[in-house]
Write a structure and sequence with these properties.
With 129 residues, this protein is of the alpha/beta class. The chain has a single domain, classed as 2,3-Dihydroxybiphenyl 1,2-Dioxygenase, domain 1 (Roll), CATH 3.10.180.10. Helix content is 16%, strand content 39%. The strands form two sheets. It has a four-stranded mixed sheet, covered by helices on one side. It has a four-stranded mixed sheet with strand order 5-8-7-6, covered by helices on one side. The model has no long low-confidence stretch (mean pLDDT 91).
Length: 129
């Protein structure tokens, strides 16, 4: 496909995360992760802003959509401080912050954790040397 024939995607607009209990999940994303709640819509939807990308939490209507979602990687400035806040909040942690790659001017760090619905999420940080 030639560039002039592309679909025209400019950026990621929305990510869907499944939840069995939308209210519980909305509380996690708002109160633990600190995302801004944009709105809720009946019967089982909650929308959050994450740096201009909308995160939609919903209860799957069909069995084929009822599975853990894709991994969301939340960029943070201080991965160790953010990890400590998750730990203090009782979040289920998968590992400790660790360096993934040494880049020319920074180190890429990550750590993984679970939300209230058992979806895997991650924190990522580009640490200047």
């Amino acid at each position: 496909m030639k560039k002039s024939e592309s679909v025209g995607i400019r950026r990621l607009g929305q990510v869907q995360m499944r939840a069995q209990d939308v209210e519980r999940a909305a509380g996690f994303y708002e109160n633990v992760l600190g995302l801004k709640l944009l709105f809720k819509a009946p019967p089982n939807l909650a929308f959050f802003d994450c740096g201009g990308v909308r995160v939609m939490i919903d209860k799957p209507e069909k069995p084929e959509f009822d599975h853990p979602g894709s991994v969301l990687y939340f960029a943070v400035d201080d991965i160790h401080a953010s990890f400590a806040r998750l730990k203090e909040s009782g979040v289920r942690l998968e590992d400790e912050p660790h360096m993934i790659a040494r880049m020319p001017d920074h180190d890429l760090w990550m750590t993984f954790f679970r939300d209230s619905e058992d979806n895997v999420l991650a924190l990522t940080s580009e640490v200047k040397r």
